[in-house]
Design brief:
The chain is mainly α. The protein contains 11 helices and no strands. Helix 4 packs parallel to helix 6.
């Protein structure tokens, strides 16, 4: 809710000062924010408005961001063909602009979508150029790629690998409240038949 409030203020200022790139930026990130809160109709509207402005001013990096936002929204709604189409376009634009953040972010979201669609080979192929054994896990894009790799390992019946990745992404000092990592850990423990541990994690 705090992010939404700040995003709406940013959008208001961008419009008042006629900053089209900033307006597109605010709209796109409001879409990223509203979707996970369940406000999908509003999120789609923001993303489409942001994409339209980015196309009008030929801001290809924000075009990549808008397609990425749309892809994640479609994936949340299990419209996987549409999600893949949007995320593939996002990754293409990110590569054209050499935007490392959006290359990593689109790669992570796209690979996760392929796993969800049971296209494991395509998920592996998508991750391979960008994710290596020495890739850090500090940035958002890097962590999204590692999460996708953990999902891929689980889909390939390698729960031990999934637990290793989740452990790398979990700070020992945090409260272990990252829901995506908790779900992955619980599912991996279930696959290993460590049911009491899995139950505690999933609860």
């Amino acid at each position: 809710s705090e992010v939404s409030r700040d995003g709406k203020l940013a959008l208001k200022i961008a419009r008042e000062t006629d900053q089209r790139a900033a307006e597109a930026y605010a709209l796109i990130f409001l879409a990223f924010c509203q979707g996970p809160q369940g406000f999908y109709a509003q999120a789609f509207e923001y993303a489409m408005q942001g994409l339209r402005i980015a196309e009008e001013i030929d801001h290809r990096q924000w075009m990549a961001a808008a397609h990425c936002a749309l892809g994640t929204l479609y994936r949340d709604l299990l419209a996987l063909p549409q999600a893949c189409e949007q995320l593939e376009r996002a990754l293409q634009l990110a590569k054209e602009t050499c935007s490392l953040h959006w290359i990593r972010t689109a790669t992570g979201h796209l690979a996760s979508t392929y796993v969800l669609a049971h296209d494991l080979l395509q998920a592996e192929t998508t991750l391979a150029p960008t994710l290596t054994a020495i890739t850090s896990n500090q940035t958002l894009g890097q962590r999204l790629m590692w999460c996708a790799d953990a999902e891929l390992a689980l889909a390939r019946n390698d729960p031990t690998r999934t637990l290793q990745i989740v452990a790398q992404l979990t700070n020992e000092d945090d409260d272990h409240s990252i829901l995506r990592l908790l779900r992955l850990r619980g599912e991996a423990l279930t696959t290993l038949n460590r049911l009491q541990e899995a139950e505690a994690v999933l609860e």
